[in-house]
Amino acid sequence: MKTELHIPSDLKFLTVVERWLLDCLELELGDSVEWTNQSNRLRLALVEAYSNVVRHAHKDQPQIPVLLRLELQERDIALEIWDHGTGYDLSTYLPPNPEEKQEGGYGWLIMNRLMDKVEYQLQINGRNCLKLETSVPETEAKAG
User: Which of 20, 37, 53, 86 lies 20 to 30 angstroms, CA to CA, from 45?
Assistant: First the structure.
């Protein structure tokens, strides 16, 4: 299954973005997934990615849409978040030190902890792409 969503760069659409992802996956995977655990993980990773685009890449430009692409093969999920910003140079990224009570910089850390693979590509045909990949485990059969 492949699908995509073009959505304004505005945090008021955050719930729409979350529902789009989870509804698409639930329609395809049904009861074969423990949604309570998986939906929290997937939603948090997507919220982090989308809100970073809105707050940084498309700062104050809600007219520039964000493109979200979702691909599901078996139980493997690939989610791409495309933006038109200047991009972020990952070579300058330093993980936050909790002792310094740093306000920003946690997004990359969070996404890498929640997903199996995180890739970021700068300027592909004028856009940047953040790709999040993971597999969702099957629900374990309950002994009765």
Answer: 86
Amino acid at 135: S
CB 17 within 8 A of CB 3: no
**Which residues are CB-contacts of 116 (< 8 A; sequence separation ≥ 6)?**
133, 134, 135
Residue 126, CA distances (Å) to 62, 85, 86 in order: 18, 9, 9
Judged on CB neighbours under 10 Å (0-12, 13-18, 19+), 51 is middle
Q: What is the pLDDT of residues 85-119, one digit of tens each?
A: 988 877 777 777 767 766 677 888 899 999 999 99
Cα distance between the two ends of the chain: 33
pTM above threshold 0.85: yes
